[in-house]
């Protein structure tokens, strides 16, 4: 299938825009790749320290037999249900490496915070910047410089982007990401959302709300809605960085163990000793990035990736911006409906065909580059297939690590969840770029009903999310809707990277959804983020430049009439130009302890806030 002209044009533009930085990156990568292996290059004391803790046979393999040594970077902790299964992965990976005549070492661990735990708390102010901490920790792990490749264990929101950014700074090494899989389906996401809205109205108490939440989040594995964590997994498949089809296989299955072992064989196959040398820095090129963006848009994935994948691209010497996303969104059909842009969860998504179906449809429609490197010899087309255990493994005739087979995905198993690219849910992806005198912002439209794509009404300006929650609880927002003729645009400012680390504002969804459910026309405008699970209320997010650096949101006043038009791509304060231009931006007020988080680690991130780039530049702190 011929590549779609818009996909080709965006790819060419990224390539041209990035020519100098990408060439510099590849030259550095090439020079590092040409060095002798670490165990041969380093001094004897360095080598002795590196392998002192290994069993004697492993030392022999590395030093005398010159076998490949694979570094393991793990984000294991059991605070994250998604990462709890990783507890036993290192020993499994080491065992498989030995079976293959190689060795593996845990090079280091990276921090991994749970946004579900910190949502709406002071800890959320550390969330976005934890991505760059993870990237730094990945670099610390790999700086031992004695590895021929690496396996990266991470799944959730900031963890995969952080691992990938760190990995790309060691782009001369082959690397494979190793997922853990989702938890089984519990209370449906729609039912959970209903209980949250009832709680916001005071119609159910804490006991009922807690019961619902625990039924939804109930076991080991990734949360089952299509938020940032599961969007990460979709993108890893589209970029060819997983063992094909491994994203959404439950942790406690023989198939999961087989796929985990296969990750070892896969990374060994792309080392220099394996004969098909494929360092991650060459694999992740402009075509690979575009494939990721198209897959994100076609599945209605998390808005957080409008920040994270800009940073990922920069780590590979590539420059992308929101115009690239918007142009791809205009031609990428929405072919998946998974909560929050549908009622299905990721287990239903997997059963209907999962990433394999999505990638096949996009490749066949000319919307993804097929001529890309992946960690597998067969290329991206292999990612259109579904893994399964061969019959001999079920009968116990072969070890789990030798028992994998892949089958064709076939047609959609549920047309309410996955549709062909020729007959999509929508002809365009779930993202729009907004521009106007309030700056540049983005809106996720895939979960917003078309009749709510345009909202015009008076502004109610808040200096933090708790102020909005208090106003809702006091009945002020319902009163403002009534006085505003049925419409209200809530503005929450001072939420950008330099202000307070750009927290997610997911706790604002239930009260705004309540107002919307009562028939009012409401919208949110903010320089902060929304969770990957948000969407039913129209929200212009990531407004740049942010208020803290004098951005336009700092000029807004209560009562200003605002227009959010997702169809026309407009975000505008309907204030006369003369008056608007004459206004002095407000100064960011001191935040109270509820919003500020002093004493809970926030002070340690002052340098991150000071150095952060804009949201559209990936909110990077390391450039």
TrEMBL record:
<comment type="similarity">
    <text>Belongs to the IlvD/Edd family.</text>
</comment>
<feature type="domain" description="Dihydroxy-acid/6-phosphogluconate dehydratase N-terminal">
    <location>
        <begin position="68"/>
        <end position="382"/>
    </location>
</feature>
<feature type="binding site">
    <location>
        <position position="223"/>
    </location>
    <ligand>
        <name>[4Fe-4S] cluster</name>
    </ligand>
</feature>
<dbReference type="GO" id="GO:0005829">
    <property type="term" value="C:cytosol"/>
</dbReference>
<feature type="domain" description="Dihydroxy-acid/6-phosphogluconate dehydratase C-terminal">
    <location>
        <begin position="417"/>
        <end position="619"/>
    </location>
</feature>
<dbReference type="InterPro" id="IPR042096">
    <property type="entry name" value="Dihydro-acid_dehy_C"/>
</dbReference>
<keyword id="KW-0479">Metal-binding</keyword>
<dbReference type="GO" id="GO:0004456">
    <property type="term" value="F:phosphogluconate dehydratase activity"/>
</dbReference>
<dbReference type="InterPro" id="IPR000581">
    <property type="entry name" value="ILV_EDD_N"/>
</dbReference>
<keyword id="KW-0004">4Fe-4S</keyword>
<comment type="function">
    <text>Catalyzes the dehydration of 6-phospho-D-gluconate to 2-dehydro-3-deoxy-6-phospho-D-gluconate.</text>
</comment>
<dbReference type="GO" id="GO:0009255">
    <property type="term" value="P:Entner-Doudoroff pathway through 6-phosphogluconate"/>
</dbReference>
<comment type="pathway">
    <text>Carbohydrate metabolism; Entner-Doudoroff pathway.</text>
</comment>
<keyword id="KW-0311">Gluconate utilization</keyword>
<dbReference type="GO" id="GO:0046872">
    <property type="term" value="F:metal ion binding"/>
</dbReference>
<dbReference type="InterPro" id="IPR020558">
    <property type="entry name" value="DiOHA_6PGluconate_deHydtase_CS"/>
</dbReference>
<dbReference type="InterPro" id="IPR004786">
    <property type="entry name" value="6-phosphgluc_deHydtase"/>
</dbReference>
<keyword id="KW-0119">Carbohydrate metabolism</keyword>
<keyword id="KW-0411">Iron-sulfur</keyword>
<dbReference type="Pfam" id="PF24877">
    <property type="entry name" value="ILV_EDD_C"/>
</dbReference>
<dbReference type="InterPro" id="IPR037237">
    <property type="entry name" value="IlvD/EDD_N"/>
</dbReference>
<keyword id="KW-0456">Lyase</keyword>
<dbReference type="GO" id="GO:0019521">
    <property type="term" value="P:D-gluconate metabolic process"/>
</dbReference>
<dbReference type="Pfam" id="PF00920">
    <property type="entry name" value="ILVD_EDD_N"/>
</dbReference>
<dbReference type="GO" id="GO:0051539">
    <property type="term" value="F:4 iron, 4 sulfur cluster binding"/>
</dbReference>
<feature type="binding site">
    <location>
        <position position="156"/>
    </location>
    <ligand>
        <name>[4Fe-4S] cluster</name>
    </ligand>
</feature>
<dbReference type="InterPro" id="IPR056740">
    <property type="entry name" value="ILV_EDD_C"/>
</dbReference>
<keyword id="KW-0408">Iron</keyword>
<protein>
    <recommendedName>
        <fullName>Phosphogluconate dehydratase</fullName>
        <ecNumber>4.2.1.12</ecNumber>
    </recommendedName>
</protein>
């Amino acid at each position: 299938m011929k590549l779609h002209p818009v996909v080709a044009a965006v790819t060419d533009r990224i390539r041209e825009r990035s020519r100098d930085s990408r060439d510099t990156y590849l030259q550095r990568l090439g020079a590092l790749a040409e060095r002798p292996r670490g165990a041969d290059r380093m001094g004897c004391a360095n080598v002795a320290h590196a392998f002192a803790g290994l069993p004697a046979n492993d030392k022999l393999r590395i030093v005398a037999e010159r076998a490949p040594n694979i570094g393991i970077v793990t984000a294991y902790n059991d605070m994250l249900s998604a990462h709890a299964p990783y507890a036993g992965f290192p020993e499994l990976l080491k065992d498989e490496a030995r079976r293959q005549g190689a060795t593996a070492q845990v090079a280091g661990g990276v921090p991994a915070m749970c946004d579900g735990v910190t949502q709406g708390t002071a800890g959320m102010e550390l969330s976005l910047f934890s991505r760059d901490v993870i990237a730094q920790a990945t670099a610390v792990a790999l700086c031992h410089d004695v590895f021929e490749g690496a396996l990266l264990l991470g799944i959730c929101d900031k963890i995969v982007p952080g691992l990938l950014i760190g990995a790309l700074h060691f782009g001369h090494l082959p690397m494979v990401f190793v997922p853990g899989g989702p938890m089984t389906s519990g209370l449906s996401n729609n039912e959970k959302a209903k209980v949250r809205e009832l709680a916001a109205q005071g119609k159910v108490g804490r006991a009922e709300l807690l019961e619902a939440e625990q039924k939804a989040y109930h076991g080991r594995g990734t949360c089952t809605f299509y938020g940032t964590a599961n969007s990460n997994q979709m993108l890893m498949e589209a970029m060819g960085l997983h063992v094909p089809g491994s994203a959404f296989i439950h942790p406690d299955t023989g198939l999961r163990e087989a796929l985990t072992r296969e990750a070892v064989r896969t990374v060994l196959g792309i080392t220099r000793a394996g004969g098909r040398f494929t360092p991650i820095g060459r694999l992740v090129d402009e075509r690979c990035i575009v494939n990721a963006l198209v897959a994100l848009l076609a599945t209605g994935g998390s808005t957080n990736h409008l920040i994270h994948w800009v940073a990922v691209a920069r780590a590979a010497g590539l420059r992308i911006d929101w115009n690239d996303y918007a142009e791809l969104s205009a031609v990428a059909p929405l072919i998946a409906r998974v909560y929050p842009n549908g009622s299905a969860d990721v287990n239903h998504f997997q059963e209907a065909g999962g990433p394999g179906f999505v990638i096949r449809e996009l490749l066949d429609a000319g919307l993804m580059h097929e001529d890309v490197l992946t960690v597998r010899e067969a290329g991206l087309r292999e990612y259109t297939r579904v893994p399964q255990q061969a019959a001999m493994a079920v009968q116990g005739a072969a070890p789990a690590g030798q028992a994998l087979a892949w089958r064709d995905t076939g047609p959609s198993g549920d047309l309410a969840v996955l549709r062909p690219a020729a007959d999509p849910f929508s002809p365009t992806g779930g993202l729009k770029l907004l521009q106007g005198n309030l700056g540049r912002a983005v809106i996720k439209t895939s979960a917003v009903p078309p009749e709510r794509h345009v909202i015009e009404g008076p502004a109610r300006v808040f200096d933090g999310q708790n102020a909005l929650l208090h106003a809702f609880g006091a009945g002020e927002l319902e009163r403002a809707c009534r006085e505003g003729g049925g419409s209200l645009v809530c503005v929450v400012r001072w939420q950008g990277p330099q202000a307070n680390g750009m927290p997610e504002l997911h706790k604002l969804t239930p009260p705004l959804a309540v107002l919307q459910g009562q028939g009012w026309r409401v919208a949110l405008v903010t320089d902060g983020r929304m969770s990957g699970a948000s969407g039913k209320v129209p929200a212009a997010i990531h407004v740049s430049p942010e208020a803290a650096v004098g951005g336009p949101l700092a000029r807004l006043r209560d009562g200003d009439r605002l227009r959010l038009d997702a169809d026309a791509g407009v975000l505008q304060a309907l204030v006369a130009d003369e008056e608007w231009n004459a206004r002095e931006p407000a100064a960011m007020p001191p935040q109270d302890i509820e919003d500020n988080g002093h004493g809970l680690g926030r002070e340690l991130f002052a340098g991150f806030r000071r150095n952060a780039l804009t949201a559209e530049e990936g909110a990077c702190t390391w450039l």
